Each structure stands twice: as C-alpha cells, then as structure tokens.
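job 3f2a | input accepted
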Amino acid sequence: MKVEILYFEGCPNHAPEAERVREILREEGLAAEVVEVNVGDELAARALGFLGSPTIRVDGLDVEPAARSAKDFGMTCRVYMEDGRPVGLPSSEMIRQALREAAEAAPATHGCCQAPVSAGPEGRQPRSPASRKSLLLGGSIVAAIGASLCCILPIVAAVSGAGALAAGAAFEKWRPWLLGVTGVLLAGGFLLAYRDHRKACKPGSLCATRPMSRWNFLALAVVALLVIGLAAFPYYSGTAAQTVIWHGGQTVSAGSAAHVTAAFRIPDMDCPACAVSLSAGFRRLPGVADAKVDYGTRRAVVTYDPAVQSPAALKKVVTEAGFRFEPEKDFRN
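job 3f2a | predicted structure (333 res):
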C-alpha cells in the first residue's frame, strides 16, 4: 500500500495531516509506504493532479471519494467538508475508510471489498464475509471428499497393505446427498464472494475503480476445480489406483504346474478402484499367475497353481475386504 501526501511549502495543515495519517496506520495495524510530495508550482500541480494542500491519496486514489473525478488543479489550500462545515484537513474517518478499502482490495487479502465489521454483543467480533466464504468453500471441499470416500478408502487401504477395504461402501449410499451438499456449499461461496464485492464496492469507492483482483478469481477457480475433481474421483479412480497400487505377483513358470482358472462374481463391488485393489490383492498371493477383476461386470478371473494356492484363499481375499463372493458354476471349491 502506498500513501501519498501532496502539499506545498508553507501549508499549515501539511504536518498535522501527515502525523494523522501515520497514527491511523498504526491504529489499523497497516503497513504502508508514506510519501510526502512537495508540489512546487502550477505546472507541477497540473501534472500531479494536485487539488490543493494537503491532498492524500491511497494507492493513487484520493481519500475523498467525491473528489476523485475533480479537475480543478492548482496551488491552493484545500477545503474538506466535515459535519456540514468547511475544514482544512480530511477527517480521520475519511482517511481510515480509504485505508481500509485499499487494504481489503489488495491481492493478499481473502477477498475484494470486504466491509469493515463492528463488534457484536458483549464485544464479540461477528464473523467476516471473507470468513464465511472460506467456511463455505472449505465445506464444499470436505463434502466432495466425503462423496468420494467410497473410492478413496480402497486405494489408501491397498497402499497401506490393509487390503481393498470396503469401508468406503458405507459412503456410497450417501454419495448423492454429499454431492448435493458439495454443490450448495460451492455455489454459496461464489455467491457470497460476488455479493460482498457488489455490496462493498459502492460508486466512488476504491473497489469500484478496480475489478476484483485476478488472484481472488484464480483462488475461486482453483477451489472450484479441486471440488469438481474430488467429486468426480470415482469416475477415474481406476486409473488413479493403477498408478499408485503395486500390481506385482509371484513369478510362476508355465511348466511348473498345471494352472487352473477360477471365475467368480463380486456383486457389491462399488468402485473401479476396488477392482484394481482386489486384483492387486490376488496377485500378492503365492502361486497366483494372473488376476483380472472387471468393475463393469463385477467379475473376477484368477489363474493360479493349485499346488500352492486354493480357492478358499481367493474367497478369503474378497470376504476380508468386506464384499460378497459369488462363485460361478465351474468354480472349484
């Protein structure tokens, strides 16, 4: 933030106004570069847009909103109106408001044009619009994660060595509701950001002369993409699982034994990631040469060495993961 104090030599109001600006900055806890500009003549006054001494600008805008479009530049003592009477200094409240507007419009803040808040009952500070927006957007991320836990948990469990846990299945029935909550919270966050911008950026204010910061738009866009990506995770969870889950198995020579193939169904398998995780679980069994689990048909085909492995072990992988095991007619028990 940059604060300019424009004056001409000999102005009696220059020094007290400079001190007032610095005092308000300290009170507000704001860091700013304060520059005092001595306007030397009429030519400089026109070049600088000097409306009289003292003139205060915050990030290039006059602290008096009504004067931001004025063109009566010159080497004069400036007059401000306070409570209906002319005074030689801008009021503390006028300076304070301009500083707050500039601080709230800065890219480093949570959002543009957040209105100053006043203390509530018993001195408690009410929740700011930026805080409410953060809660809504944060809640949408949490809800999106919850809506996709049905496919996230099997991957986490498989990577950690716990198998293809079906604990995520408990979240599958809640997925439509969680997706609805995700959409509502995300829309609420965007609506609140837009409403606060429109409400606080009144004509003549600092925000009204500047669009919402590109960083704020970028932050909202990143959150939206993150939420959409999380909510849609089940649709590409199979690819994600293929990337992070180890698929190695035992090396079994084709001539070492007569391999057999067992085919069975897993009807309640609820996610492509579960199929990948179960396939990896089968391949980790000794004697298993190949394992294919198809999420679309809910069907598994496992090739193994009967001298090393048994059908009961295959069934155990499925049941311990929390799924139902349905052998096909030619399945060997």
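job 3f2a | Residues 285 and 313 are 8 Å apart (CA to CA).
job 3f2a | closed
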